[in-house]
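Homework-ish question, so no full write-ups if that breaks the rules, but can someone show me the predicted structure for this set?
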Amino acid sequence: MAKLLDKQRYKCALGAMQTVQAITRAIPVLHSGPGCAQKLSDSIGSSGYFSPNIFPCTSINEKDVVFGGAKKLETTIANALKVIDADLYVILTGCIPEIVGDDTAEVVSHFADSDKPVIYASTAGFKGNNYKGHEQIIDAIIDQYLERSDEKEKGLVNIWADVPYQDLFWLGNIRELEKLIAELGLTSNTIFGYQHGIRNIDRIPKAEFNLLVSPWVSVGNMKEMEKKLGIPYLHYPTLPIGAFETSKFLREVGKFAGVDEQKVESVINEHENYYYYLIERYADMFLETRVMAKQFSVVADAQYALGITKFLVNDLGLVPAKQFITDDTPKQFQEQIKAEFENLNYGLKAEVSFETDSYKIHNEIQSHDYHGYPLILGSYYEKEVTEKIFGHFLNIAWPVQDKVVLDDFYVGYTGGIRLIEDIYSVAVQRWN
Amino acid sequence: MALNLESSNVATRENRIGSITGYIGTLSDLANQSECGTLKGCSRCFSQSSTCLSSCALGQLSAIRDVAIIHHGPAGCSVASAGAYYLDKVMAKKRGVTNNTVYVGTDMNEKDTIFGSADALRRIILEINKRYSPKAIFVTSSCATGIIGEDIDSVVDDVKDEIDVPIVAVHCEGFKSRIWATGFDISDHAVLSSIVKPPKQKRNTINFKNFYESARPEIIEIFKNFDLKPIFLYCNSTVEELSHISESLATTCICGTLGNYLGNGLEEKYGVPYIRTINPLGIAGFETWLREIGRVTERSEAVEKYIAEQREIYIPQIEEIKKELKGLKAVLGMGPGYTFEVSRVLNELGIEVVWALAWHYDKKYENGDVPPSMEYLLENGVDFEASVADQQNYEVMNILNKYQPDLYLSRHPGSTVWAIKNGTPAVYVADEYMIFGYKHTLEFAQSILDSIHNRSFEKNLARRVKLPYTDWWYKQNVDAFLEEGKK
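A: Not a homework solution, just the prediction itself:
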């Protein structure tokens, strides 16, 4: 049922063209109206080896709506194979072909024998948001491209995290997760980012297990891979930010992978030593900041709302006011995520609201007494409302206008330090 | 043109003024074929993504202060609301005003495509009106709502009794037209049909259609010389201001593609003269334009005095910098409201245009003539290879690779980077006032010079990156995918 999307924080399923874009040398081919790619890309950082204005598109017109666009799709794919130098061609369908009933699967089947793989994903805008679209793309790769492998690589782990581009820090986060996993003596495999592409996709079936670091996105993909490829998975719902969560994360992954406990502890110890060397040097800043209340709110997708809440509470000793999850989390995951917010140090519980109507979110923020100048971490929409309540604002969720991120990250020990740097760079602007 | 404000639907540029998106030839051939009526656009059997007309339409409307845009469709259609929110805030701040425009979506889902969601839309309109008390409400469709036949006109008619501000349906199905500029017409139509009132008195104002009013302070100063006040549209406009634009002495615009529907509409409906000269870019453009404003508003003497004073300051400086630009070769790709205007300025500066791409081409303006910018070039003996391509980047890259010009000039986000990857210095002519008047023509010349003097960035990048097109494509003629006779 249509609903009021006031200050929207996600795109539609076709926005998953960015998931394809994040796979090196994979090209999205859009069976859609002419402007969908431009609309669904961001004005900063959307370029690269391919950019939205390179994405082939059937640019459906009125005639195609009446007579169908299958023929146009056929010539677009055939010529994309000739013109564009890519390793993987992913056809994404938009609203129009799915309403008028173009048989995309049939057209794509004509390219089964082409030199490069051509697959398709059903990503009509009305089928869900770009978080769901992201899952559709990974499912398309599993269902149409991957085969079960009897051969396994010892210690090989596929790492999956949240949605590229929608997540401002996607590139830095996934690289940092890889580094952490490598320190446990495991070999990581991810399909997104610099030099990660078709070879990594080919390697997926050889992994000993899938590691999913996300509250809910891609849980379905993990189940699908377990079923089709026989790969077990570890679902770690919290994006580990800072020492407390990252150490917990490493212990859990180590246990699942059968890594020697002493090895895990020595990795943790080394990181925590340096982490607390830094924290010690700046502890006075945390304690003696005259302008920041202990209470905070995060307005973001489940990943950051949960990850940052845990970090601020369990690492920095702040106290959660209400937290807002804005990614239209499917109902079946909400209870489980809520339970995570109630599982904080010292028995603290954070109230959490799954809300896509920002008017209501802003009203709640404005009517809450944070007992001082609060810290609000959210999307650009929270900037003005935070100014109204004299709070500190950090833009960590889409849409982002206040920050340019090339490969910065918030995950892990180092990520926690980066987040502290960002928060206090805002706080030190003020004095009381 | 025959303006029909009774209908909320606007005919596309293709149907109304014979606009095309596929052509390869020369400027003179393009003009001759337009005049004889033999010009037929080609279609392509391969194309890359371009732009949605709804971005143009709603980008314009959402820049008006304190209005509401209700975009009925899936979340991807209304995603432009994020950018609009940011722009509204920063543009208002720059002006020292506030803008509480809201742009919301309806997050249409699969069920809605089967059963429709007119009731939900009705509730959302009323809720937005209650929450924000906007000064006007624009209710807009999308491809999905268009195809399933959601009747937004009826929903709007239905709620009119309960809402005491202008409310109008805006038809924005992206598949309607390959020419995104149709979206500008759609926004003008919505403003003309719902907000603009018949004139009660004449004012000494000039309607000035532009994008982001960056030259606002200086244009206000220029017009003071002629006792005229510009009203900039639509960025930061108020609904109250817009309701009076029929009382202005004339309408002008910085980009013919952006403004011709409103200009012609105001002229046809309320007799407000529309300035149809070449645009105020470069020397000839600025002078021709100012003189026409002087003539139409009966202020020729003051205009001549101003031109004489300014010439004395700037012409010697422009002449000086021209010496360094002479002999450079350029390729450019822009909307038709700019391509042939900027070509003229490059010619004035002594830069040779070797190929000009227009993202579309309007065979005739609303009044039936060939666009004045083209007429001017041909009358002055300037001709070059030209093509019409709706931002087809692969065609641009093919051209740049073959001609290896000194310079590529472009006006659309994400386009210049591809030129520099080819090793070609690029100038991003994004600010619509970048070449306005004498002062900015001089600045423009200087920025071209700066761009070609230090080519480090493009050379560094070009050396390290691989281009995404196959060798096969670079060996093809640029028109390889054009199909004649089909549309």
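Now go work out the reasoning yourself. Hint: The two ends of chain A are 49 Å apart (CA to CA).
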